[in-house]
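Protein modeling request. Please complete all fields; requests missing the sequence field cannot be processed.
Requester role: graduate student
Desired output: 3D structure, token encoding
Chains: 1
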Amino acid sequence: MTIPSAPFSIEGGVAPLEGPHGPIGVLVCGHGSRNRLAVEEFASLARQLQHNMGPVPVEYGYLEFARPILRDGLDALRQRGVSHVLAIPAMLFAAGHAKNDIPSVLNTYAAETGLRIDYGRELGVDRRMIQAAGARIRACLDQAQEQDRAAGREPVPVERTLLVVVGRGSSDPDANSNVAKVTRLLVEGFGFAWGETVYSGVTFPLVEPGLRHVVKLGYRRIVVFPYFLFSGVLVSRIVQHSQRVADDHPELQILQASYLGDHPEVLATFRERVEDVLRGDTDMNCSLCKYRAQVLGFETEVGAPQHSHHHHVEGLVESCTLCERECTGACQEDGVPLPAGEDSGAHEHESGHGHHHHGPDHHHHTPYPHADHPLGPRTLRQPPTSG
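Delivered output (387 residues):
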């Protein structure tokens, strides 16, 4: 099968059908989840990207917990006549999954099949992503103002509102610092009174202890915004732990903004990443990458080998059965996920030491040096505190 050639043009926002290495296709690389809504959202985004890319074949795959896995997506592209794959990591920031796990799978497949695979960069701190985040926050503020008017309350101006951005949390300080940059861009973009950054796992401060410090600043209204692409157990954890703090402070308004989802600007950023690969502009931040440079506190990880930690769970398709579609966090009501074996459908999760709970064949990440930080993962194993 041969795909007819088209002009090798990037300017129009549509990738060419054929380039110097033959027919082109796009692979969207995701992490995967046992949460059905998250998987559905990812598949929907890939379908929308296919629509936006026109005749250029688009497939997707996951590292773990869901089908199709990355190899399935690559097989599908080859069956569609593709000989040159543009692989785009569906990751907000370049941490271990984008830097190690996905490239390892792609490199192995390319070596086995001879398929040309060019790897793109993460979505990153991008103006379009900031616009998408701003739209979610604006919708939250607008809804709050409508509720204030309906209740006869004086609306709280943005200048007296505090923004808390929640990142996923990583053992990579470069990725964590990017969340803080997103926070600052949003704070200045809206003119919020103050801004803070917290994380859902692995690093510090986590959501609940972070919010308990934030409320001491004295602002009447706090907007909690999860800077996440999709639904899942981590987003549910953010809502639950924010609610704990809200219950202890009824005098405050703690608002929940929606995660990014398939906002049009998110889709536009994916298209830009495809164009970046065609241009050869795929550089991640190497100056602060703990695998390439002596980053303060992570010096021992320079030169660590690039390999995937997900081979043992590729293709697992058992969805969690504790929730209907949207994750309620039923597997970790106390903030700690059930270990593998206690429930066959327990959600995937990262513990404080950066390991997933997958039984004896767990990941062998380098231990996170701050796993015992008093505002970090250890708080998930402590009773919630007030004040």
